[in-house]
Amino acid sequence: SAQDAFVEDLLEQLQAPVKVGESDYPVSFHCGVVRFPQQGDEFDTLLRRVQVSAQQAKHEQTFLYCYSSGLDEQHLRQLHILEQLQQAVTRDELTLLLQPKIDCRSGRTIGAELLLRWHNQQLGFVGPDEFIPLAEQSGLIKRLTRWVCERAVELLEQLPVDSEHFSLSVNLSAVDLLSDEILALIADLEVQRPQLNRNLVLEVTESAIVSDPDNAIARLNWLRNKGYGVSIDDYGTGYSSLAQMRQLPVTELKIDRAFVQPLADSAVDQSIVRSTIQLAHELGLYVVAEGVEDEPSWRWLQQQGCDELQGFYFSKPISAIDFAQRLQGEAHA
Ligand code: C2E
Ligand code: CA
Ligand code: CA
Q1: What is the pLDDT of residues 228-261, one digit of tens each?
Q2: Residue of the nearest CA to atom 45 in ligand 1?
Q3: Cα 233 to ligand 3 centroid, rounded to whole Å
Q4: From residue 128, how far is each of 118, 158, 232 by CA, in Å?
């Protein structure tokens, strides 16, 4: 249509690099589109909706986003979440749940992954899949990461564990790897617990590394050299091959639950997981499978020599009190 031709023409012109002096600068543009008068007939409404749509285009990294109803409500909710999240730490609204990490051979609990939960007065319970991305975009995540790591140190002091063979895993975001604050944080925690490296594993995703590989790898190297475990989370959902993984300073590969959940009845997923475990082991990596939901999957992973498991079959994420009870129960079993 004439409209499409107009947009294509616009896109072509805007995509050309801008020349400043001798240099060409790539510039990115994002457009919001609102239909008048169907989607608003007042100036303020149109402007707000077009702005929200342009932001959405930027967020989705597309050139153009057409306003759809509900988008400004969604946008308002995001603003509200961001505003409330600022005070989540000081108002003591965050809690941590622990999901048991299971030794694949024995079925015993050998650690836990720390997962954030947030309950706010006004918003109620907000799930991590909703607030973590917003915390990442706003940089607030660094404060949350600090809080989680501080709690990890407290938990290591409180839980009834044999600290030689127990580890807590903490999730790091791309933003955490983009600044030296993470190094300062670890150094701070080591004042309190010098041997922290024996019990802390840092989980990072491939995409967190890809966003600025040189810097991310330098910081991961720093952590590795200090003896911390580094795990590649959600492995298999990104683009990197295991061959590329080998270049990274990591100790552990965590196979994404998308491949693990269907294991019992999917031959394709079985062959993906089988070859991933084999190759990872050849590269000297420790292999974790997440999302184990039934016993046949566990037995199968056991046969393949997988090292560690997580999943609802063993336990969903639980409170520190319930986790301590679980450990005690196992010790007396
Ligand atoms: P993740 O790091 O991949 O964490 C594992 C998620 O899988 C958790 O969801 C957990 O409840 C869920 N899960 C565990 N076992 C099973 C299973 O057998 N079946 C199924 N269907 N799901 C299972 P949760 O707690 O909702 O966390 C979602 C995501 O939020 C996490 O994914 C992580 O990316 C992020 N997140 C949570 N806490 C933190 C945090 O402290 N820092 C950062 N940066 N991200 C966090
Ligand atoms: Ca994780
Ligand atoms: Ca994961």
Answers
A1: 999 999 999 887 777 777 788 999 999 999 999 9
A2: 171
A3: 5
A4: 8, 25, 19
